[in-house]
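Please go through this protein, sequence plus structure tokens, and consider how the sequence yields the tokens. Keep your notes short.
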Amino acid sequence: MAAQNGILLEVKNLKMYFPIKRGVFQRRVGDIKAVDDVSFFIRRGETFGLVGESGCGKTTAGRCILQLYRPTAGEVLFEGQELTTMKGQKLRAMRREMQMIFQDPYASLNPRMTVGSIIGEPLEVHGTAKGKAKRERVQELLRVVGLNPYFVNRYPHEFSGGQRQRIGVARALALNPSFIVADEPISALDVSIQAQIINMLEDLQEELGLTFLFIAHDLSVVRHISDRIAVMYLGKIFEIADRDELYKNPLQPYTQSLLSAVPIPDPVVEETRKRIILVGDVPSPANPPVGCNFVTRCPVKMDICEEQEPEFKEISPDHWVACWRVTG
């Protein structure tokens, strides 16, 4: 993709393969292609939505960007610096700029640590605050995410799911990062709480100038919070566009089927809409189809789809698609 002004993060041809091993000697017999040749960029200050079915590689892509998984191949450029080859102290220093909000607030907080210890741990690890300064910073972070600053000595089990996710957000903000990967941060929460967390993230983005990679499978939430959206299927990105453009003019058949499943709160419009029901299951990432990854379920496939993989092309300004019907 062409370099453009204001780009904070650029991902080029990212691959993450997990080896399949068998036998006594653990011989490698294949790979699970969780992320397979993915490219995109995120501009400074925007929210980039990444959507797709469960198991399509969204979370793995987010973890590869943060180097929690070391990618099999490809480049991750953050503020022009290559992260995949970075090691030791240099990578450790770079981690202050990049943080993650995890999906499950019940699993991502250590039950044996107090809230103060959980939020203060990044400050201690990176040596940015100690003693009284650390205590004050932790209380300030609790205030920022809408919690009582005197909750520092409580344990995670004393909080509801929404409050726990706020604690997770406070931990992510501790080192003043510029980029946050939000991995389905609301999927484990009640609907009423989801809106509160989304509004809080939007307010924090405005106040602190944050850039988000927002991973989700709820398309209505992604439309609300994102500036641009990427649609992922079986390890590959099929379409990237501005949120309004994507919802108004989806070009990839998979994107069209996803959007047809989003309910519209208008019975008149809902009656006239045509649902696209996909037949069959998602193929195994250990054995993806030849040609286009979507060919086994695509309702409008052509012969070439079963033979060659479609090229990821820019069809109109900032609208990228991988589909033979559009780019062929």
Notes: The longest strand covers residues 27-43.
